């Protein structure tokens, strides 16, 4: 399973709240704890300072020699970047792959996975990892590039003071489309989401196989912007709206926008912004990158993942070094050229990405800008009873 | 003849151990997940190993959903798809098996190999190959468009999913059928013809009845995996309009916070498939008795 599967799984247990203002609030640092089903989590409104049960490694330790073990999603780091790191530090990096966050956490708990460094965990996963006493805090003295991280994510709501995490990639939810078949004005002239309900795209549309993302999208279309809502009427309405979409367009429900849009098999797809950058690699020969477009809704979910270090890491200094290496601007750009997703670094600006020639003008809208980030919505874990309401609507939609 | 009951008991131990280890215990574990709870922290299944404490509320919800809720349509669709695919498989597979057994002659081995060899390739790879061939710009679609047939095979149509099921499982139908037909005493058919039966009557009154055991075995062999199949729909459609029960099980177990619902659906499907198995066992038993007579 690839990165997209992770995103699908991530949002199954997370919901949406506004990020921008709350991230700034997080910088101030109130840390009232929210508990969901016994799990202490941070929310943008109530950021959390996670408990620390062990000390971070001391300053100034020498790098370990030998092997650094990492746990990662498939194709979620550039092998060229890893080769550079290995050469620079004279070590060998061994990568294990996970394909589902919950399963990975279970294997970390029972000792099947024993990595030094984990890539791509979500805020939900973090709460579980801390609850399971699997992580150790980071020593930022080894990560001088930490200052490159987007300022709001240097003190994120899910981990105040970034005790355990350093942000890795960032992305937002929106609509990918073929610019040669759909005019951009279709999204900006009215309710942009309505295009997904337009029967002229029957058999040529898709939505994310991600209950929380897709149901929230239907809510946003209806003007309800609480992506963590517990209101049964709003959840039911979103489910009914998705059924109406199904009857109008018979959409595909998967995470394949990154291959289907460039192949021309679909005209439109509700998806993650990062998928459009990955899609560039799947364009048939001779097809202009400008055929790919993305509509970034004015208010939508924007989220990120991160690195974290295991408590029993055998090479903790090297693990810190790899985090530092990948948060270096040039190395992050090299990494992005393979992964596709946007590094969560404020030193990598939209202008820089455009000048790099790797992103066509038509995909500028797929980039997470500071402005978009400021008004972004976030997702948090739901209570099991509320989560069941969302799942019921998803079943009603996907059961056909 | 050896009459020691201890010896026979001893000889039954490996089989019994195998059955307990690989069937009874896993099945009980599925039941414990189905009637268990969810870990509030990690949101994964918390099996309830004590049957006296099994929680039946969720089972009731799933049964309601299957009989009058959203899963009813999925269940009916799955049955319709599987039965359609089985009928089509028999229509395609029986003549092939018959030809191989009766008329292939020296080319029998070659033809059998030609049927089997493609299936050495991983199922996923074969389906992905079909996805490429059937895509609007794929070779097959372009070939069909030369004859004026412009059909989007991958737009989430039931036809594609049913054909995918047929393609995926048909060798498992052909091979046991071939094995049965090859063992037929063809002199009986010649006798039927000598006694005035037309070729179709000989086929209907002699060949088919004598192939019953093979037909039942082949039917069961393909029906069981088809009912649990989810990847054919995943790869060839992914439309809600073609969702099968296997897809719902996959969703509940892998992508939801309600894995117990997935386990419950597994139990329901197992009970349903037990009907197929009992039919198969009864028919083979009856056939064996008729043969002895």
Query: How far apart are the termini of chain B?
Result: 25 Å
Count the domains of chain A: 2
Main structural class of chain B: mainly alpha
The CATH topology assignment of the largest domain in chain B is MetI-like fold
Return the average pLDDT of chain A rounded to an integer. Answer: 89
Got a strand count of chain B? 2
Tell me about this structure.
The complex is a heterodimer of chains A (400) and B (293). Chain A is an alpha/beta fold and 400 residues long. Chain A has helices at residues 3-12, 20-28, 79-89, 101-110, 123-131, 185-188, 211-221, 232-249, 257-263, 273-279, 316-326, 329-339, 350-355, 370-374, 384-398; strands at 17-18, 34-36, 39-41, 67-72, 92-97, 117-121, 165-178, 205-208, 252-254, 268-272, 292-295, 302-309, 342-343, 377-378. Chain A folds into 2 domains: 3-170 and 302-378, D-Maltodextrin-Binding Protein, domain 2 (3-Layer(aba) Sandwich), CATH 3.40.190.10; 173-299 and 383-395, Periplasmic binding protein-like II (D-Maltodextrin-Binding Protein, domain 2). Helices cover 36% and strands 17% of the residues of chain A. In chain A, the strands form 3 sheets. In chain A, strands 4, 5, 6, 7, 8, 9, 10, 11, 12 and 13 form a 10-stranded mixed beta sheet that branches. Chain A has a two-stranded antiparallel ribbon with strand order 1-14. The two termini of chain B are 25 Å apart. The mean pLDDT of chain B is 90. At the A-B interface, helix 1, helix 4, strand 9 and helix 15 of A face helix 3 and helix 12 of B.
């Amino acid at each position: 399973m690839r990165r997209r599967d992770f995103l699908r799984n991530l949002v199954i247990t997370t919901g949406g709240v506004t990020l921008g203002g709350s991230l700034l609030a997080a910088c101030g640092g109130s840390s009232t704890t929210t508990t969901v089903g016994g799990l202490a989590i941070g929310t943008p409104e109530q950021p959390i300072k996670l408990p620390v049960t062990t000390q971070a490694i001391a300053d100034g330790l020498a790098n370990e020699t030998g092997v650094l073990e990492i746990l990662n999603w498939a194709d979620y780091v550039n092998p060229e970047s890893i080769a550079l790191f290995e050469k620079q530090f004279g070590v060998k990096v061994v990568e294990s792959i996970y394909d589902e966050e919950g399963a990975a956490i279970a294997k970390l708990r029972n000792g099947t996975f024993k990595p030094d460094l984990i890539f791509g965990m979500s805020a939900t996963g973090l709460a579980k990892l801390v609850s399971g006493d699997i992580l150790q805090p980071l020593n930022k003295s080894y990560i001088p590039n930490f200052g490159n991280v987007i300022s709001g994510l240097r003190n994120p709501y899910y981990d105040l003071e970034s005790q355990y995490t350093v942000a890795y990639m960032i992305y937002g939810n929106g609509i990918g489309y073929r610019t040669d078949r759909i005019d951009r004005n279709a999204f900006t002239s009215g309710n942009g989401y309505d295009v997904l309900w337009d029967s002229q795209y029957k058999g040529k549309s898709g939505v994310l196989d991600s209950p929380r993302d897709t149901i929230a999208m239907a809510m946003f279309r209806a003007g309800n912007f609480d992506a963590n809502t517990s209101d049964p009427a709003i959840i039911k309405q979103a489910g009914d709206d998705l059924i109406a979409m199904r009857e109008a367009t018979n959409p595909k429900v998967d995470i394949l926008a990154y291959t289907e849009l460039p192949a021309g098999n679909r005209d439109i797809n509700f998806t993650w912004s990062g998928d459009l950058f990955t899609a560039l690699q799947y364009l048939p020969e001779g097809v202009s990158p400008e055929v790919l477009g993305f509509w970034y809704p004015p208010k939508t979910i924007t989220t990120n993942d991160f690195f974290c270090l295991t408590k029993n890491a055998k090479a903790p200094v090297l693990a810190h070094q790899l985090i530092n290496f990948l948060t270096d601007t040039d190395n992050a750009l090299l990494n992005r050229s393979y992964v596709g997703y946007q590094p969560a670094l404020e030193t990598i600006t939209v202008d820089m990405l455009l000048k790099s020639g790797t992103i066509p003008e038509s995909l500028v809208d797929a980039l997470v800008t500071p402005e978009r980030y400021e008004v972004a919505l976030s997702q948090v874990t739901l209570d099991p009873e509320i989560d069941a309401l969302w799942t019921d609507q998803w079943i009603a939609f996907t059961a056909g | 003849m050896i009459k020691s009951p201890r010896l026979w008991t001893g000889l039954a131990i490996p089989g019994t151990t195998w059955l307990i280890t690989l069937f009874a215990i896993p099945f009980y574990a599925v039941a414990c997940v189905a009637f268990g709870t969810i870990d509030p922290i990690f949101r994964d299944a918390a099996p309830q190993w004590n049957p006296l404490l099994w929680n039946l509320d969720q089972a009731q919800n799933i049964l309601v959903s299957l009989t009058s809720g959203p899963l009813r349509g999925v269940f009916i669709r799955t049955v319709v798809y599987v039965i359609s695919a089985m009928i089509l498989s028999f229509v395609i597979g029986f003549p092939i098996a018959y030809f191989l057994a009766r008329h292939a002659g020296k080319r029998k081995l070659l033809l059998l190999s030609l049927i089997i060899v493609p299936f050495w390739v991983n199922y996923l790879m074969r389906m992905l190959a079909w996805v490429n061939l059937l895509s609007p710009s794929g070779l097959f679609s372009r070939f069909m468009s030369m004859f004026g047939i412009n059909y989007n095979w991958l737009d989430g149509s039931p036809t594609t999913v049913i054909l995918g099921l047929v393609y995926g499982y048909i060798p498992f139908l052909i091979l046991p059928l071939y094995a049965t037909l090859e063992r037929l005493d063809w002199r009986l058919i010649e006798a039927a013809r000598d006694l005035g039966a037309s070729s179709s009557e000989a086929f209907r009154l002699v060949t088919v009845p004598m192939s019953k055991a093979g037909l039942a075995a082949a039917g069961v062999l393909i029906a069981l995996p088809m009912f649990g199949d989810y990847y054919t729909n995943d790869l060839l459609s992914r439309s809600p309009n073609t969702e099968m029960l296997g897809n719902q099980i996959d969703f509940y177990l892998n992508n939801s916070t309600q894995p117990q619902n997935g386990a419950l659906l597994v139990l329901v499907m197992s009970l349903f498939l037990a009907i197929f198995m009992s039919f198969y066992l009864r028919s083979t038993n009856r056939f064996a008795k008729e043969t002895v007579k």
